[in-house]
Write a structure and sequence with these properties.
With 95 residues, the protein is an alpha+beta fold. It has helices spanning 3-33, 81-92; strands spanning 50-52, 59-61, 66-69, 75-78. The structure holds zinc ion (ZN). Zinc ion binds next to loops.
């Protein structure tokens, strides 16, 4: 009999706690975005290194690029799985 009431109360408390947490997060974001007097140029623009895809020539961020170890011992970077497999097929083919 009292079980569902207890559960309802627990749910209510949980929702309240979530709301409080959410409110705190939102306030934190507002607080963090407010001080605009500081120059935002503390970090490099993209925050990553640009590498060129040898297949299509596109520049991609290194941490987002797909990598492949080359026969020469280096690493090649690609914008997509398609470019990587294209490169792989070309490299595997004897000339
Ligand atoms: Zn590509």
């Amino acid at each position: 009999m009292l079980g569902w009431m207890l559960r309802l109360l627990l749910l209510f408390l949980l929702v309240r706690a979530l709301m409080l947490l959410l409110g705190g997060v939102v306030r934190g974001i507002v607080k963090a975005s407010r001080p605009q007097s500081e120059p935002p140029s503390r970090q490099p623009l993209s925050g990553g290194t640009l590498v060129q895809d040898p297949v299509c020539g596109t520049y991609v961020l290194q941490d987002r690029a797909l990598s492949l170890r080359t026969d020469a011992g280096g690493t090649a970077f690609f914008c997509s799985e398609r470019c990587r497999s294209t490169y792989d097929a070309q490299a595997a083919r004897p000339r």
